[in-house]
Every structure is written in structure tokens, then in C-alpha cells.
Amino acid sequence: MAFTLPALPYAYNALEPHIDELTMQIHHGKHHQAYVDNLNKAIAGTPNEGKSLEELVKAAGSISPAVRNNGGGHWNHSFFWEILGPKGGGAPSGKLGDAIKSTFGSFEAFQEKFAAGGAGRFGSGWVWLIVKDGKLEISSTPNQDNPLMDVAEVKGTPILGVDVWEHAYYLKYQNKRPDYLKAIWNVIDWSKVAKHFDAASK
Ligand code: MN3
Questions:
Q1: What's the CA-to-centroid distance between 61 and ligand 1, angstroms?
Q2: How far, in Å, from the CA of 142 to the mean position of ligand 1?
Q3: pLDDT tens, 132-169?
Q4: Which residues surround ligand 1, an ion (CB under 5 A)?
Q5: What is the pLDDT of residues 98-108, one digit of tens each?
Q6: How far is the CA of 96 from the centre of ligand 1 (A)?
Q7: Cα 91 to middle of ligand 1, angstroms
Q8: What is the pTM of this model?
Q9: CA triplet 37, 51, 148: central angle to 5 degrees?
């Protein structure tokens, strides 16, 4: 069965003014759609056809670059849309809030370190908050790689991820990636991140 583009769980303009409507339309409708289409093309008629997206992503080191890049692109964006939302913002509470405080000192210190991880990624990629060996850690990956991949420098289970490709912010923020990384906190849905944290901590 071919992969399909998941519907955005909110309207294209729902993240305004932090993430603008046109960026969301192009990002979801064109970029993510292209990853899905190119992934389907790359696996058609090969032994990878029929495998789950997770299976493909975890085997990134032994699959073709087209499957790695487009499979990663499909996984990463599906995850990203889901942890954003119009009711986002604020700070996490409960177990996740406590874990962030005990790992990074404070929520603000975490935000600073996360933003630095995103700003410091040269070229295109992602910045992540992951659970690794039961502990929180910030990491970043190039291109459409992610921490689930066998090739990742730092492997773990992503609970939060932010796209730092220019296509994620250029229309509104141009070259100012740090401004985008500041604005994104307003649309992070911590209830979703907490669910990922609970699942990853079991
Ligand atoms: Mn993107």
C-alpha cells in the first residue's frame, strides 16, 4: 500500500501569526507531498514496498538515499505537524516539566539550548528533544535524517522535533532562523510532547 499525505490536524492559518498560512500551505501541500510521492516512487516494485515507515527509517543505513531522504521527510513532517497546534505555547507541566527542569536546570535553559541546537545546524536539518536510555537529550540531524535512524550520530526516541530547513520559515523570517526558533514555542503543543514522553519512558 502506498504512503499518503496525512491531513493537517488544523487549518493552514491556525498557527498565525507565528507560522504564516502560505508557509504552511507550501510546506504541507508541496514539500511534504513531494516526500510522500518520491518515497512511493522509490519503493515501487522493490523489496521495501509494503514495509512500514518506521521499518524503513530505522534501516536508513542500508536503504537507498532516495528512500532514506524521502522516508525521513515523510516521518519527520508527520511528527512535526502533530506536535504543533493553535493551542500551543506555555511550558510543560507534570512529569515532562519535571524532567526538563532536572535535566536542563530550568525550562528557559532548555529553550536556550534547544534553540542553539537548531541555529547551529549548518544547512538543512532538524533539532530534536529525545529520550535516550531513559534520559532527555537535545540533538540535531542533517537533511531529513532523524534520531530513530541507525545512521544517526545520537540515537533515541524523538518527543519534540523542529524543522530548520529554510522552507519552514523563509517567507516570514527570511535569514533569521533564530527568530523562527523563538516564535515556534508559541505553537508547540506540550500535551502532545508529553504523550510522546510517556510512551518513550515506559
Ligand atoms: Mn520541512
A1: 21
A2: 12
A3: 999 999 999 999 999 999 999 999 999 999 999 999 99
A4: 163, 165
A5: 999 999 999 99
A6: 26
A7: 24
A8: 0.97
A9: 85
